[in-house]
Design brief:
The chain is an alpha+beta fold. The protein has six helices and 22 strands.
């Protein structure tokens, strides 16, 4: 048996890998004398891929504890043959998974999911028997890098991009610029509110694990209401919805205990594009003096006089999305 090893580049905290080992009894016809090199060059080669990752400058990145899809395929009739994926860390096997190849249209393939860990370097090994070497080639490996979670305001780099990309995929309003700026902090605030975590703008391992697990999605109370706005007073989060799907999620502050936000279903009846004497920026009124508007202070708790406060940097885009007649649902 021959062992082929390849190391996957680690540029952040962890590299996770895949490995293939073909197990079976198929034997190829013996190559003609003197044509061994040519025959070997023409052997079909396995192609590997790791899905559910963030691509950046040729690399693949994920959060710690993320689940990735590992796939492989080869243009050869190997239906029923077994493929063993062996993942090692510091020379010790941490995962070994054997799956059968499925054949369709002359292509044999496999697919399974693997949840990455935290720190450490992972190495993939591919073992082929001499008989199998006469049928297929191992192909090259694929890599994925697990980013660090110790990011905070002012941090830059691919780790920030991975957090931002994941938040964006879940419809939080966040840039994807690789900078942990104020807008990124507001997105973390909204996410932490939506998952019941302490209300601040920090990231960290706990946030990464929840994001990797797909937690923190906004669940619409009125999915059949069409294009509308939902304000969850209990979580202090606002979501825009269209065609039954969430399209944006914001951090907000609603009415304080003595001046609670009115609850129910309303429709925008008036829009003021400027800033009034009370400091309300780009206001969309949905009943009497209650409005969704930008304000200088948007704490993580309910603090307004009944309106739905939004951060001033978000006020313009919110004002543009909310039209006259847009349905507004507020609930606890």
């Amino acid at each position: 048996m021959s062992i082929y090893r390849f190391r996957w580049t680690v540029t952040t905290a962890v590299t996770v890998a895949t490995a293939l080992a073909l197990c079976g009894s198929a034997v190829a016809a013996e190559a003609p004398t003197g044509a061994t090199g040519q025959a070997a060059a023409e052997l079909p080669s396995f192609s590997l891929a790791i899905g559910d990752t963030y691509r950046y400058r040729g690399g693949r990145y994920v959060l710690p504890r993320a689940k990735v899809e590992i796939t492989g395929k080869v243009s050869a009739a190997l239906d029923g043959q077994e493929v063993t994926v062996r993942i090692t860390k510091h020379g010790r096997t941490v995962k070994s998974r054997t799956v059968k190849l499925d054949q369709r249209g002359g292509v044999s393939s496999f697919s399974f999911h693997y949840r990455v860990g935290k720190k450490g370097k992972y190495i993939a090994e591919l073992a082929l028997t001499p008989e199998q070497e006469a049928i297929v080639k191992a192909g090259s490996g694929e890599s994925v890098n697990v980013v660090r979670t110790g990011i905070n305001r002012g941090s830059r780099g691919v780790a920030v991009r991975v957090f931002q990309n994941k938040l964006k995929s879940m419809k939080y309003v966040v840039p994807r610029n690789g900078r942990f700026d104020a807008a990124t902090g507001r997105a973390f605030m909204a996410f932490r509110k939506n998952t019941g975590m302490s209300r601040n703008e920090s990231a960290g391992y706990a946030v990464a694990r929840k994001l990797a697990a797909g937690k923190g999605r906004f669940h619409l109370r009125h999915p059949k209401a069409g294009r509308h706005v939902e304000v969850d007073i209990s979580k202090q989060v606002m979501a825009f919805a269209d065609k039954g799907k969430v399209v944006r999620i914001y951090h907000v502050s609603t009415g304080a205990g003595g001046t609670p936000t009115v609850r129910g279903t309303f429709h925008v009846y008036r829009k003021d594009p400027g800033t009034n004497a009370k400091g309300m920026v780009k206001s969309s009124y949905f009943i009497r003096g209650y409005a969704i508007h930008g304000f200088a202070s948007v704490p993580p708790y309910n603090a307004s006089h009944g309106c739905v406060r939004v951060p001033v940097p978000n006020a313009a885009s919110i004002f543009a999305w909310v039209r006259m007649g847009t349905r507004i649902d507020t609930y606890y």
